[in-house]
Each structure stands twice: as structure tokens, then as C-alpha cells.
Specification:
Elements: H1 2-11, H2 13-33, E1 46-52, H3 58-73, E2 79-87, E3 90-97, H4 103-120, E4 129-130, E5 139-147, H5 157-172, E6 178-185, E7 189-195, H6 197-202, H7 207-216, E8 221-228, E9 231-237, H8 244-248, E10 251-255, E11 258-261, E12 266-272, E13 279-281, E14 284-293, H9 299-315, E15 321-328, H10 330-359, H11 362-386, H12 392-400, H13 402-425, H14 432-458
Antiparallel strand pairs: 1-3, 1-4, 2-3, 5-14, 5-15, 6-14, 7-12, 8-9, 10-11, 13-14
Helix pairs in contact: 1-14, 2-11, 3-4, 5-9, 10-11, 10-12, 10-13, 11-13, 13-14
């Protein structure tokens, strides 16, 4: 069979060149579209579900939040296992699916079941939400929001966190391939109503009345429309509060015609929320942002897109606040890619030198060297079809395999060169096609068996 394949290849040389060009084109296209990352992502197909309930003890979180979510996820198709962690004020449930399950289909299944689970959780104890569609290696870009000058006192940690959450984060989330942007550090801004119990007693009020008044006086309502002549006017009730003063003007009750305002029983102020940690850089507190790449995206393309949006985000900030990148995945990606490129170039040069020294023929070296990039391109095509990414491990494997790639070509070329040299010594006319065919018939089977043995040795790695 191998002899027949070699004979057909020598008979239709032009067809072989066309196939060579087509494979090279397909390989180059695979290289351009193949996801490139620093490390292989071995994260299983999983969907994370988070439920926040501030102030709830871990035991209560397990009973009121975690258990309903776990029981609701049981029975979904393709589920391997369900794991959960119950912490103070937070429930975390991770649903693991079969490896061949599409991640978007898995998320849709979970989303459909979450609507049923939400009805099982008592009102006011939180709403379960799916986590971002990313993996443990999804943190491709980190940055910090800092004061342009540490001596500035008009920019507080609460201001930094507010700019991150409501400006920078929203801009970076529009970058292609970014699933979410996480915020760490700083202090979350809150409008806090600190109620004085003694003043409540004075005005004969309770906490429920105050909370109901705040909720009912902070909303927009529609009042249909009215017709005035040929024109139609919409009726709107504008009730959203915008400042501490407006919150303080909420009426709680009237005492003999005298209104009792919220400011009469409570102090209203902007203050940070409770927190359990901080982020520092060079001893100064900052706000950290993490851009999370979506599963299956090209990490380098995502980082480049984030950098492009980062300039837009920086222009939207005050002059007293700056953005400083601190981690960039592309550095590792470029090093991984350069390792494979350097190995390919060095391998080609060494092969050319060795063949030239032993055969004294540069054209034979060129024939062998041509097999190197073609073998690499075929490997990239197969990786794309298998859904594998080009990372440090896969590219290093290709670099190591360069020596194995040239074995067959070296043996075949050396044998053809030997046959032609022997015929020249005998004074016979040398037909290159016939010489190559004879050389192939002699060593094709041994070369094929040697390559198959090498492949079989590496097969257990794929199990």
C-alpha cells in the first residue's frame, strides 16, 4: 500500500504540489483561528451558582439557600456531580457536567431550573445567580485604579471603587471575549439610614414603618396619559431619591398636621459598606479589577481588546485617578509561541547542517526542512478539529517532536541520495524519479513502522 502511494505521488507530481499548497493554506488558517493561551485549560464543564444573603450564618445558609439549589439542580441531564460550599452570607454551588456537554447548553439548563429554585427560597433571603462563563484560567488582565498623587485627599477609597464599578467596569465589559470584570478592594458606597431608637419612641414609630416608607417613596410610577386638544401628555410620578437631603425629606407620618420626616428619627449619610479585606500596592490601598475571558476565547485577542477599551476608560476618569495594568497574559502567550518558533528555526538549521556535513548536498537538506513546517501545520489543523488550544504544553510538545518529524524524511532522502550516487559511480544514467521510487520501496515500510511505534508509545497520554 505504501509503495503504491509513493508511486502515485511520483507519477502525479503536480497534484502533490497542489495538495501541499492546500494543506499549507488550511494550516495557516488554523494557526490564525486557533485559541492561543499560556496554559492548557483543564477546567471541566461546570456552572457555578452564587446566592448572597448578608448577615446569614453558615448553618442557615446551608439550610435555606444551598440545599434548595442543590436539590433543584439534581436530575439535570449530563450532571456528574454537584458540590457546594456554605459560608457566612454566601452560598456557592458548582454543577459538573459531562465533558462532551456544550457549556452554553449546560448554562441554559441551569437557568431554566433556577426559576423553579428561586420559588423555594424564602422571600428576602437572596436570589440565586449563575457565575460568569469563565474558568480558573480566565483572569487574563489585571489593573488597579489609583490616585494620580498619593497626597490627594479629595479622592477617597470609596470614590475609587465607585468609578471602578460604574464606569471602568462597564466599559471593559464591552470588549469582545470578556465575560465579566471583577472588582476588589476599595469601599462600596452606600446611602445609610442610621435610625435612633429613642427618637423612634418619641414619635411612636417602629422599624417596619420606616423601612416601608423608604421603599414606597423611592420609585417611579406611570399615570397613563391625558389629552389636551390635539396633543397627548404622559403622566409620570417622579419619586426616585438622588441625595441624602431627598432621603431625609421622606414623610413617615403626620402628628396633628405636622409631618414627621425621616431626618427627624435618623441620620442619613454616605458611608462605606462593611468589608472583610483590602487590596494594597506599594503600601497604598487601591482598587483592583480583573478581566475574565469567556471559555474558549483566544486569550491574546481578549487582552488586546481589553487594552483597546482601557484607553477609553482612562479618558472617562478624572485627572486625579489613573489606571495601571499589573498583569498581562500576553507576556506568557508570546513567550510560549516564541519557544515553538525558536525550536522550529533551530531544528531546521541543525538539520540542514547535519545533512550538509554527511551528504554534502544542500538540496537534500532543503527537502527535509520542507517537511518541518508542513508537519507543524498539519498538527495545528488537527488541534483545531479536536478543540485544543495552542499553549505552552502543546507547543512545547511540537517543539520536542521536531526531531521525530524529520526522522522519516532524513532516512528517505539519504537512501535516495545513496542510490543515485551508486548509479553515478557505475556510469549509469540516473533517473531521479526511478531512484526515489526504488529508495521508497526499500525503506517505506520500516519508516512507517517506526513512526507507528512512536505514536503508540504516546497513545496512553490521551486516555
Amino acid at each position: 500500500m505504501l509503495e503504491k502511494l509513493v508511486e502515485i505521488s511520483l507519477r502525479y507530481k503536480f497534484l502533490v504540489l497542489v495538495i501541499f499548497i492546500v494543506v499549507a493554506f488550511a494550516g495557516i488558517r488554523a494557526v490564525m483561528t486557533l485559541p492561543i493561551d499560556a496554559f492548557p485549560d483543564v477546567t471541566p464543564v461546570q456552572v457555578n451558582i452564587y446566592t448572597e444573603s448578608p448577615g446569614l450564618a453558615a448553618e442557615d445558609v446551608e439550610q435555606l439557600l444551598t440545599f434548595p439549589v442543590e436539590s433543584g439542580m439534581a436530575g439535570l441531564p449530563g450532571v456528574q456531580q454537584i458540590r457546594s460550599v456554605s459560608l457566612f452570607g454566601l452560598s456557592y454551588v458548582s454543577v459538573y457536567f459531562d465533558d462532551d456537554m456544550d457549556i452554553y447548553f449546560a448554562r441554559r439548563l441551569v437557568m431554566e431550573r433556577l426559576q423553579e429554585v428561586a420559588d423555594r427560597i424564602p422571600e428576602g433571603y437572596g436570589t440565586p445567580e449563575m457565575g460568569p462563563n469563565t474558568s480558573g484560567l480566565g483572569q487574563v488582565f489585571w489593573y488597579t485604579l489609583e490616585r494620580a498623587n498619593e497626597k490627594l485627599e479629595n479622592i477617597t477609597d470609596m470614590d475609587l471603587r465607585t468609578w471602578q464599578d460604574w464606569s471602568v467596569r462597564l466599559i471593559l465589559r464591552t470588549a469582545p471575549g470578556v465575560d465579566d470584570v471583577m472588582s476588589w478592594g476599595g469601599q462600596e458606597r452606600q446611602y445609610q439610614v442610621v435610625i435612633d431608637p429613642l427618637r423612634l419612641i418619641k414619635y411612636q414609630l417602629d422599624y417596619k414603618a420606616v423601612m416601608a416608607a423608604i421603599e414606597s417613596n423611592n420609585r417611579q410610577v406611570g399615570g397613563q396619559y391625558i389629552n389636551i386638544g390635539p396633543e397627548q401628555y404622559l403622566v409620570r410620578g417622579l419619586g426616585l431619591v438622588k441625595s441624602e437631603d431627598e432621603i431625609g425629606q421622606i414623610v413617615l407620618k403626620d402628628d396633628e398636621g405636622v409631618p414627621v420626616y425621616l431626618r427627624d428619627v435618623a441620620d442619613i449619610r454616605q458611608a462605606p459598606a462593611l468589608r472583610t479585606g483590602a487590596v494594597t500596592r506599594d503600601g497604598e490601598e487601591v482598587v483592583l479589577g480583573m478581566a475574565l475571558a469567556r471559555i474558549g476565547e483566544n486569550a491574546k485577542n481578549v487582552v488586546d481588546a481589553v487594552k483597546g477599551k482601557l484607553q477609553t476608560a482612562a479618558s472617562a476618569l478624572p485627572e486625579d485617578i489613573k489606571i495601571r495594568p499589573i498583569y498581562d497574559r500576553t507576556d506568557l502567550v508570546e513567550k510560549a509561541v516564541s519557544t515553538a518558533e525558536r525550536a522550529l528555526v533551530e531544528g531546521s538549521i541543525l538539520v540542514a547542517i547535519v545533512l550538509f556535513l554527511f551528504l554534502g548536498e544542500i538540496r537534500s537538506a532543503i527537502v527535509v526542512i520542507a517537511a518541518l513546517p508542513l508537519a507543524m501545520l498539519i498538527a495545528f489543523i488537527m488541534m483545531g478539529e479536536a478543540g485544543l488550544s495552542a499553549n505552552l504544553m502543546s507547543l512545547a510538545g511540537l517543539a520536542i517532536g521536531i526531531g521525530m518529524m524529520v526522522d522519516g524524511a532524513v532516512v528517505m532522502t539519504e537512501n535516495a541520495f545513496r542510490i543515485m550516487a551508486e548509479r553515478l559511480e557505475k556510469g549509469e544514467a540516473v533517473n531521479r524519479t526511478a531512484a526515489v521510487l526504488t529508495a521508497a520501496r526499500e525503506v517505506a515500510n520500516p519508516i512507517a513502522f517506526a513512526i507507528i511505534i512512536i505514536i503508540v508509545v504516546f497513545l496512553p497520554l490521551f486516555s
